[in-house]
Amino acid sequence: MGNNILVKLNNVGFQQNQKWLVQGVSLQVEKGKIVTLIGPNGSGKSTTAKIALGLFKNIEGQVEKFTNNIGYVPQKISIDWTLPLRVRDFMLLTDNLTEDVIDEALSLTGVINLKDKSLGNLSGGEFQRVLLARAISKKPELLVLDEPVQGVDFTGEIALYELIKEISEKLNCGILLISHDLHTVMSATDHVVCLNGHVCCSGSPKEVAKNSEYKALFGEQASQTLSIYEHKHDHVHANDGDIKKN
Amino acid sequence: MFDDFFIRALVAGIGIAFVAGPLGCFVVWRRLSYFGDTLAHSALLGVTIAYSLEFNIAVSIFLISSAIALILIQLQKKTNLPSDALLGLLAHSSLAVGLVVIGFLTFIRFDIMGLLFGDILAVNKKDLITIWVGGALILFVLRLIWKPLFASTVNYELAQAEGLNPDRAKAVFTVLLAAIIAISIKLVGVLLITGMLIIPTAMARNLSDNPKKMVIFAIIGGLLSVFIGLFSSLEFNTPSGPSIIAAALALFIFSLLKVKQTIQLKN
């Protein structure tokens, strides 16, 4: 069990300008598992992901990383257009990949037709698909996805979440996922961490949905949505003949 | 062949154009034009120190420029002044101190115009070796740090998260910038070196849709500027540095025609 851990956060926190962005977070991401961070705006989701990635220097607590093969989809990415960049150039940003590997990844996220387009001419949803393709193309052991489907159309969103789940199974990689979309996220998630400046609750999606703090944070509605969804999820899997239970 | 001053200047210019193209692209991409300018201004101080201590000029400029870069980083950390103000402070004060020191060194005759704007007559065989060996070294090191430097230019956090070392690449790049200033001062002079880095690159941006193309066009633009500039400098007896930069400007203006076309196509 122990050697399946990819990254482990032990009571970590980070403060900026004397203000704690997040504090007291412990979690771990294992191979083939999806850990989802949920929480309201400003609750420290992205900060926690960045701590896990080692992007901050002065953090509290310990981060143990057992892999350096990481794919990252940041929440915000501003690219300066003084730099001419096509999708194919962007795919090669941090790794040397073959044409075949690039094509495969772009096909998976449905944007192979954009390969020679300039990055600046993409729509928000298209760009998001390219970001995801780039992160998975290097066959990472750990994927950190910060709101990976923002701006993607509704059908695309579901397809991409399916894809993320598929990737975690196929590559046996661990995924740290951030999303505010409770509906879709929970179906694929093994472990949910609900943040609000600190960990307010965590566990399996079902456990979290029942938690009173979660209800207080997202409202009774969200809790119900979640259980309805889990029901649906059960059903889909039964049709597929999958024996996995909730 | 290298006995002719014009051939020497041409060979020097070609060498510098090859290095200035790729470095210039990063200067533009990373928005470092004013930073490059500051390093270049401080080069004058480097020259005066080299003369007064009878030290190698290129090495002296390189050391002073690197020192200025370090001082800048310290000032950025310790003061609340914005970067552009600090850059202005360092650029003009190092230029001023350089000129004041020249005033004290009455026993040496300086060609101040040559230092500020370049002087092709001053390029000797030793300079050629400095330019070509130094230039090759700069390109070699740039090749080594290309991946992390480029990735962090596109997005710093992405590069760092995926295991590249952007901070080291940035530090090395600053040193390379100081190095190209050191080797190109004789050709274009301290006030115009940044132009050599930026103007052909700006032209290249108008003509390219990907980074590799932009680097190649920047090199070609630099080479053309050197040829046109030096030949017209010989023909019309104009100073070499300004002639090269003026030629680069002319090329940039031509490249605007292409931009106009693409914008019309888009509409």
Question: In words, what does this structure look like?
Answer:
The complex is a heterodimer of chains A (246) and B (267). Chain A is an alpha/beta fold and 246 residues long. Chain A has helices at 45-53, 87-91, 99-108, 124-137, 154-170, 182-188, 205-210, 212-218, 220-240, and strands at 5-16, 19-30, 34-38, 59-65, 70-73, 142-146, 174-178, 191-195, 199-203. In chain A, helix 3 packs across helix 4 and helix 8 (212-218) crosses helix 9. Helix content of chain B is 84%, strand content 0%. Chain B is globular and about 55 Å long. At the A-B interface, strand 5 of A face helix 6, helix 7 and helix 10 of B.
Question: In a few lines, what is going on in this structure?
Answer:
The complex is a heterodimer of chains A (246) and B (267). With 246 residues, chain A is of the alpha/beta class.
Features:
heterodimer; A: 246 residues; alpha/beta; Rossmann fold; six-stranded mixed beta sheet; three-stranded antiparallel beta sheet; 24% strand; disordered C terminus; B: 267 residues; mainly alpha; ABC transporter involved in vitamin B12 uptake, BtuC; 11 helices
Overall mean pLDDT of chain B stands at 89
Mean pLDDT of chain A: 83
The CATH architecture of chain B can be named as Orthogonal Bundle
- Counted by DSSP, the helix tally of chain B is 11
- Globally, the shape of chain A reads globular
Q: If interface size is counted as residues with C-beta under 8 Å from the partner's C-beta, which chains form the largest one? A: A-B, 26 and 25 residues
**Terminal Cα separation of chain B, in Å?**
53 Å
Classify the fold: give the CATH topology of the domain at 2-69 and 140-240 in chain A: Rossmann fold
How many strands in all of chain A?
9
Oligomer: heterodimer
How is the secondary structure organized here?
The complex is a heterodimer of chains A (246) and B (267).
Chain A: E1 5-16, E2 19-30, E3 34-38, H1 45-53, E4 59-65, E5 70-73, H2 87-91, H3 99-108, H4 124-137, E6 142-146, H5 154-170, E7 174-178, H6 182-188, E8 191-195, E9 199-203, H7 205-210, H8 212-218, H9 220-240
Parallel strand pairs in A: 3-7, 3-8, 5-6, 6-7
Antiparallel strand pairs in A: 1-2, 1-4, 8-9
Chain B: H1 5-29, H2 33-53, H3 57-78, H4 83-104, H5 112-117, H6 125-154, H7 156-161, H8 166-188, H9 193-207, H10 211-236, H11 240-266
